[in-house]
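Sequence, please.
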């Protein structure tokens, strides 16, 4: 991949390939993140997102339909009813330094073409989860999570247990949707984890996870027992406006009985915004709840509506993020974990230290190069400082994933520190661990004979995006493996028959009864019918995430075609290879990995044994909507209700392609006064011509 090439130097082909790669990787990371199991840090994710945006802005015509810049959150989970938001719930774009804030202000001034200063509200960005509350005639009708922005989860009963959320509002407009953040205070978070520890329950890694886990309970009485709070900061559908300004509207919400954040302030210039940001950052540690930045919003609501939205973010607001939190501690040792694909991952064992309110006792070390102070391209990281056992290291936490090491204090070395010898054998199975050319990690060569790999493969197999078997989670599958009951995925499906085992044996186990055992066997039976994409993903082939599995499934259609193609394929040449490479989003690394899996004897046999038990449903096609999706539109002449930039972005956000000149490929010409030659050309070519109002009617019709 060309991730180390500056965007300005990318060729078009490289750009296209990288955008496809980013769409896959970030799609997978995103899904994992919203299921509470992040695969990378927020910093890494944000860096990829920025790079993706940079490439897209240099090559706008290469922007993909599944671009990560078009994604919000994740699709709602099946356990809850679904609620379609009357007004979409969006994300926020980010500013990371003062310069970004200046730029934000400048872009607004330019977009609107105004001369006077714009004023903004500034308020803490609460690190919780957003919730939309719908009141009709003053009664709380429903509460929904953000979900994917368009459809959220129905958590009404749970939301009703939160004290800050009124069930009835007096003198409310007929329709009132209040939006804000559900969060948990530091003190309540600590107390909850203490109780959970006592009871042997789930320990939450941070207050945001705890808040999300508590709100998203199928049993509202559990939510009631968890002390959640709510700050209101926005609104959705309204039957009448609340005020003319952001601040006025927020104050109206206070009148209705909601809490708003006391640090909300009106600022007249970008300098005042930054000053308030610095002020809030100083108070951050003593606020008693997590915030991860400050949100700036244009105060004048008429201007907000002129500015409108990009595909996933309002143009009138931005989140100015705080830098990651840091702390110094000592490295006690390095453990090696073996993953599903045999990768040996070094993990730092640290003297426990508090970073941003959370106790941290380990950090990821990635691989040998990383420990030695080099990146995978041979460049320096941490100024080339290596990490030794006994060193003082600076850890940082970004998001809820495993923390990382930012720096090493070499001045504290006193001769007792030791260099880490990277193992040449797998610590789990004793097989040789080798590092291949071009690979950053050491891998165990034991394959399915390595217990660590086999367990991880099984866990992956039963995970949510894969077979997702009710009652058979990571914990159960690990136990079954240790007992020798299930050594590979196919054995899950013979569990009941083999050994003539079944209810009796399982019933005797702790945690299982006749009922739950029967339920498990039924659930297994049920999953003998499986979709093609889930199966491909479930195989756990290296580099094949949920998105790439879906891509493969929709391109090959059914298992037989896919299997035949992979069996006949050769790496690097031939018709099957060419077919694979022709799929937008599949690159050489991924293709090589899949073909290898189908040609390795042991792995292949494992796949065949599994498939023998299954009925595999073919993949389905997907459709898209909007009256202008896929159409090519040209704007010409002067527009009165919007600037040209506004018109273009709006059209693009609806899936149209905006072009500068009229040709046979043009579908619609939007012509204002003075459209001149373009209007004539359109008439010649018999192209649909609309005036500004006609265009607005068309796109608003939806
Ligand atoms: N680690 C990963 O793999 C991974 C994957 C996906 C996303 N992420 C992380 O998730 C974040 C993006 O998620 P996001 O789309 O929820 O965006 P976001 O959290 O950066 O910002 C949008 C949200 O801010 C919240 N918010 C809090 N206070 C607010 C206020 N006063 N006014 C308005 N909104 C307020 C709202 O809930 C809103 O939905 C990024 O930080 C990203 O790094 C990480
Ligand atoms: Zn091994």
């Amino acid at each position: 991949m060309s991730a180390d090439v500056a965007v300005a130097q990318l060729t078009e082909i490289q750009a296209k390939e990288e955008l496809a790669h980013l769409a896959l990787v970030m799609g997978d990371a995103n899904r994992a993140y919203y299921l509470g199991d992040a695969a990378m840090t927020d910093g890494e994710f944000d860096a990829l997102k920025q790079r993706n945006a940079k490439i897209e802005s240099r090559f706008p015509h290469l922007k993909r339909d599944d671009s990560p810049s078009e994604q919000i959150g994740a699709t709602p989970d099946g356990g809850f009813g679904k609620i379609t938001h009357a007004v979409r719930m969006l994300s926020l774009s980010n500013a990371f330094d003062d310069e970004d804030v200046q730029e934000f202000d400048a872009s607004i001034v330019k977009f609107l073409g105004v001369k006077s200063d714009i004023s903004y509200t500034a308020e803490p960005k609460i690190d919780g989860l957003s919730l939309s509350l719908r009141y009709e005639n003053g009664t709380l009708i429903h509460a929904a999570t953000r979900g994917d922005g368009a459809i959220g989860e129905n958590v009404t009963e749970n939301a009703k247990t939160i004290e800050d959320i009124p069930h009835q509002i007096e003198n409310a407009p007929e329709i009132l949707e209040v939006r804000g953040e559900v969060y948990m205070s530091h003190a309540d978070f600590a107390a909850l984890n203490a109780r959970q520890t006592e009871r042997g329950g789930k320990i939450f890694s941070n207050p945001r996870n705890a808040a999300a886990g508590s709100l998203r309970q199928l049993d509202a009485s559990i939510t009631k027992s968890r002390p959640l709070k709510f700050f209101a900061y926005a609104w959705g559908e309204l039957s009448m406006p609340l005020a003319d300004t952001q601040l006025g509207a927020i104050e109206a919400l206070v009148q209705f009985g909601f809490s708003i954040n006391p640090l909300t302030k009106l600022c007249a210039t970008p300098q005042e915004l930054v000053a308030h940001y610095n002020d809030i950052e100083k108070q951050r540690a003593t606020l008693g709840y997590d915030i991860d930045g400050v949100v700036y919003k244009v105060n004048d609501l008429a201007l907000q509506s002129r500015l409108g939205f990009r595909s996933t973010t309002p143009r009138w607001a931005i989140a100015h993020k705080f830098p990651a939190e840091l702390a110094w501690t000592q490295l006690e040792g390095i453990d090696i974990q073996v993953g599903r694909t045999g990768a040996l991952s070094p993990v730092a064992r640290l003297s426990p230290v508090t970073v941003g309110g959370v106790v941290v006792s380990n950090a990821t070390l990635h691989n040998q190069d990383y420990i030695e102070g080099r990146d995978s391209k041979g460049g320096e990281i941490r100024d080339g400082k290596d990490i030794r056992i006994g060193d003082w290291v600076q850890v940082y936490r970004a998001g809820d994933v495993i923390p990382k090491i930012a720096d090493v204090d070499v001045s504290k070395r006193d001769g007792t520190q030791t260099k880490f010898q990277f193992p040449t054998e797998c610590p789990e199975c004793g097989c040789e661990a080798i590092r291949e050319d071009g690979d950053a990690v050491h891998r165990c060569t034991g394959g399915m004979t390595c217990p660590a790999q086999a367990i991880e493969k099984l866990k992956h197999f039963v995970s949510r995006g894969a077979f997702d078997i009710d009652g058979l989670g990571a914990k159960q599958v690990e136990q079954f493996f240790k007992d020798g009951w299930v050594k590979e995925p196919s054995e899950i499906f013979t569990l009941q028959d083999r050994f003539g085992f079944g209810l009796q044996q399982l019933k005797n186990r702790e945690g299982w009864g006749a009922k739950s055992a029967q339920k498990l066997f039924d659930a297994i039976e049920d999953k003998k019918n499986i979709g093609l994409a889930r199966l491909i993903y479930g195989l756990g082939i290296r580099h094949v995430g949920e998105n790439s599995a879906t891509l493969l499934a929709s391109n090959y259609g059914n298992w037989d075609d896919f299997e035949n193609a992979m069996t006949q394929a050769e790496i690097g040449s031939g018709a099957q290879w060419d077919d694979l490479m022709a799929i937008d989003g599949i690159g050489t690394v991924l293709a090589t990995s899949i073909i290898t899996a189908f040609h390795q004897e042991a792995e292949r046999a494992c796949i065949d044994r599994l498939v023998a038990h299954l009925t595999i449903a073919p993949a389905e096609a997907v459709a898209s909507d909007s009256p202008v999706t896929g159409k090519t539109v040209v704007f010409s002449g002067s527009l009165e209700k919007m600037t040209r930039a506004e018109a273009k972005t709006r059209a693009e956000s609806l899936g149209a392609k905006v072009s500068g000149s009229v040709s046979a490929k043009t579908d619609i010409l939007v012509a204002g006064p003075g459209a001149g030659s373009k209007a004539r050309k359109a008439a010649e070519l018999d192209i649909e011509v609309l005036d500004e109002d006609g265009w607005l009617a068309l796109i608003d019709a939806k």
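The first helix runs from residue 12 to 34.
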